[in-house]
Amino acid sequence: MKAMKGKKHRIGKLLMLSLVSAGLLVPVQAKAAGYECEAKIPVEVREEGSGIPEGNEYTVKIRGLDGAPMPENGSVVIAGEGKAELGPISYTEPEDYQYEIWQEGQEKEHFTYDDTVYTVTVRVTNTEDGTGLEAQIWAIKEGEEAKSEIVFENRYEKPSKPWNPGSEDEDEDDDAEVSAAVTPPAQTPGAPIQIPEQPAGSQAQGAQTGDSANVALWTSTAGLGALALVAVIARRRRREQEG
């Protein structure tokens, strides 16, 4: 009887040892307190164009896909050109988390806003020593496959100003051209004025001929001035369209 009890006792010990050994072969991931990591997603806004007014603000937003953790604030405001970060976002499990990031559109004259939507992946993995988590971030631009930075490029088109002939900011060179075009030729100082002699009895006819010559001279001068003015106006309008 005692031999039977001793045999059962030995069998029980062997069975318990087998169960313990089997348990050591099952992979188990232990998560200690504070086993987490944080990630911040960098974004950037750029402005293109000349004469961009000051005081512009751009809002960049984030949306989590498939229940991905979200930051406390789901958007960030960037004043003018600059960089910012969305986050921090806390993670407690190794996994791939995906987000969509875009820029909020605005209705503002002369501005064209970048409406790109980026798909961002945050890959959370265990550290090499197994004591914590670490995150890697990459973004893919909508319609593309290559990884890229999260950059929004907004363009400003400077409006052209209507030309005002009486404005104070007229170009000096244009004024000089008009002045030169309508200024009659000056006579050499001290040079005698030669008056052709007329036969007696033809004074009335000579006077009429002189009047006609004066009218022709001033008509030609006025015509040249008008042509010069038209050329200046055309050139100025061309500059405004180009600039």
Q: What does this molecule look like?
A:
There is one protein chain. A hairpin with a 5-residue loop joins strand 8 and strand 9. The chain is built from three helices and ten strands. With 243 residues, the protein is of the alpha+beta class. It has two domains: 120 residues, Immunoglobulin-like (Sandwich), CATH 2.60.40.3050; 53 residues. The chain has a six-stranded antiparallel beta sheet, with no helix packed on it. Strands 4-1-10-6 form a four-stranded mixed beta sheet, with no helix packed on it. The N and C termini lie far apart (111 Å).
Secondary structure blueprint with pairings:
Blueprint: H1 2-25, E1 37-48, E2 57-65, E3 75-79, E4 82-91, E5 95-103, E6 111-112, E7 117-126, E8 133-141, E9 147-148, E10 151-156, H2 172-182, H3 203-242
Parallel strand pairs: 1-10
Antiparallel strand pairs: 1-4, 2-3, 2-5, 5-7, 6-10, 7-8, 8-9
Helix pairs in contact: 2-3
Strand order of the largest sheet: 3-2-5-7-8-9
Poorly predicted sequence stretches spanning 5 or more consecutive residues: 14-33, 170-174
Distance between the termini: 111 Å
The tally of beta strands, per DSSP, is 10
Q: In percent, how much strand structure appears in the residues? A: 25-35%
User: Could you say how many structural domains there are in total?
Assistant: 2
Summing up helix and strand content along with how strands pair, one would put the structural category as alpha+beta
Dominant shape: rod-shaped
CATH topology of the largest domain: Immunoglobulin-like
Fraction of helical residues: 25-40%
H/E series: HEEEEEEEEEEHH
Average pLDDT score: 76
Q: Please give the radius of gyration in angstroms.
A: 44 Å
CATH architecture grouping of the largest domain:
Sandwich
Put simply, the count of helices is 3
